[in-house]
């Protein structure tokens, strides 16, 4: 196998990486129906979906949509995961999708051999990674089995490269024949870093609008600010708490807040909330919630304070529930929010600007209603689950071309 792999190394190191976070808005969009291959091309296709985890995250939710869409179109999906017993594993099995655990060993070489054995037994036409850090596993398995390989980029591109390190980052970026990228920001960042444009294919996140009903307008209750995401440093929920505390100092109105999610910083964030003097009961740490829809419906503003993002699922879900968004201008957030169409985008370090925006939204129900209506219409037009079969057919036709 190594003899087959070795000639690729020249390609890995021939593309210099010039790390930059600057990008320019692009007209890249979903291919028109006239140019899109028919979804019938998916029928009979054997697709192995490789995931690093099946936890309660956005990438994993999109994997569920891809797997169930493939099955409904007559394809044969198999999911391989490096972890077991996670949130989406049960739901995939309930949908009739086979799931296999391939992460028994912490050794990368042993994991690779386990993945190769599993894929050889499945005889896939395509091995598709769902997380950037499993791109190399997918590429090696595809090389060993003769299948095509499709890699993934789920964030802004640069964060993934940094997290994997220079060697593994370059291998994970340049080995797969194509990369399914869920944000325009990542496409521009990777092009600026030297990745050939032909390799990058935009596959937007989707959701089922029917599962996210418009929020229920409430009267006579304090406004509620909602944050959703992993309680890790990249989401900057410490800044979320500082925004709430500064707003509390500037307003006489009571308010409520909820943080949905779990992670390594939960205890630190709970301590910070107490040390900032936020009144007891003002903010709830809800942990992981199986269905966040009721909280979107109860909230008045979704506050996203991330340091970096690709296409955040939480924004799509909030917009589908007709909930206005206040967010940092990272990744594809500006084009999703469309400031001031569906919410506001502010500089990540501008605390007064965030406080002013929250105050404006919380005091103007008509503004919240108009932004909410615009948000739901935007989701139905641009991110409806119904377009996924055509998107996958178009992507796979490109991979096999």
Round the mean pLDDT to the nearest integer and report it.
90
Helix content: 40-55%
Second-tier CATH architecture of the largest domain? 3-Layer(aba) Sandwich
Listing every helix as H and every strand as E from the N terminus to the C terminus, the arrangement reads HHEHEHEHEHEHHEHEEHEHEHEHEHEHHH
What fold name goes in the CATH topology slot of the largest domain?
Answer: Rossmann fold
As laid out across the biggest beta sheet, the strand order is 3-2-1-4-5-6-7
CATH class of the largest domain: Alpha Beta
CATH superfamily of the largest domain: Glycogen Phosphorylase B
Cα distance spanning the termini: 24 Å
* Largest sheet descriptor: 7 strands, parallel
Number of helices: 17
Cα gyration radius (Å)? 22 Å
- The backbone outline, from C-alpha atoms, is globular
Count of domains: 2
The secondary structure category is alpha/beta
Annotation, overall tally of beta strands: 13
How does this model look, in words?
There is one protein chain. This protein has 17 helices and 13 strands. With 401 residues, it is of the alpha/beta class. The chain has two domains: 2-206 and 384-400, Rossmann fold, CATH 3.40.50.2000; 210-382, 3-Layer(aba) Sandwich (Rossmann fold), CATH 3.40.50. The strands form two sheets. It has a seven-stranded parallel β-sheet with strand order 3-2-1-4-5-6-7, with helices on both faces. Strand 6 (178-181), helix 9 (184-192) and strand 7 form a beta-alpha-beta unit. It is globular and about 65 Å long.
């Amino acid at each position: 196998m190594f003899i087959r792999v070795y000639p690729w190394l020249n390609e890995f190191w021939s593309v210099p990486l010039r790390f930059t976070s600057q990008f320019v808005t692009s007209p890249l969009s979903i291919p028109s129906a006239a140019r899109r291959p028919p979804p019938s091309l998916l029928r009979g296709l054997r697709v192995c979906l490789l995931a690093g985890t099946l936890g309660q995250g956005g990438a994993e939710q999109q994997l569920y949509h891809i797997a169930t869409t493939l099955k409904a179109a007559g394809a044969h999906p198999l999911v391989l995961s490096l972890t077991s017993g996670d949130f989406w594993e049960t739901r995939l099995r309930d949908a009739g999708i086979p799931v296999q655990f391939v992460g028994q060993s912490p050794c990368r070489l042993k994991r690779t051999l386990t993945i190769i054995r599993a894929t050889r037994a499945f005889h896939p036409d395509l091995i598709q990674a769902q997380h950037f850090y499993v791109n190399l596993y997918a590429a090696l398995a595809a090389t060993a089995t003769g299948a095509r390989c499709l890699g993934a980029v789920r964030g802004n591109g640069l964060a993934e490269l940094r997290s994997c390190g220079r060697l593994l980052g370059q291998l994970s970026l340049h080995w797969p024949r194509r990369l399914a990228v869920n944000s325009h920001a990542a496409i521009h960042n990777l092009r600026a870093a030297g990745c050939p444009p032909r390799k990058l294919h935009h596959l937007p996140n989707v959701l089922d609008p029917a599962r996210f009903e418009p929020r229920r307008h409430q009267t006579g209750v304090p406004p509620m600010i909602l944050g959703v995401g992993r309680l890790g440093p990249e989401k900057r929920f410490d800044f979320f708490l500082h925004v709430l505390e500064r707003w509390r100092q500037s307003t006489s109105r009571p308010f409520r807040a909820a943080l949905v999610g779990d992670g390594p910083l939960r205890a630190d964030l709970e301590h910070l909330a107490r040390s900032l003097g936020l009144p007891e009961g003002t903010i709830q740490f809800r942990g992981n919630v199986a269905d966040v829809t009721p909280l979107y419906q109860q909230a008045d503003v979704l506050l996203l304070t991330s340091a970096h993002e690709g296409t955040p699922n939480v924004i799509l879900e909030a917009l589908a529930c007709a909930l206005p968004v206040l967010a940092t201008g990272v990744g594809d957030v500006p084009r999703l929010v469309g400031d001031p169409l569906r919410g506001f985008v502010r500089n990540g370090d501008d605390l007064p600007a965030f406080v002013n925006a929250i105050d404006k939204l919380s005091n103007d129900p008509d503004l919240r209603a108009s932004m909410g209506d615009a948000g739901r219409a935007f989701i139905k037009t641009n991110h409806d689950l119904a377009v996924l079969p055509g998107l996958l057919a178009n992507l796979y036709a490109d991979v096999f071309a």
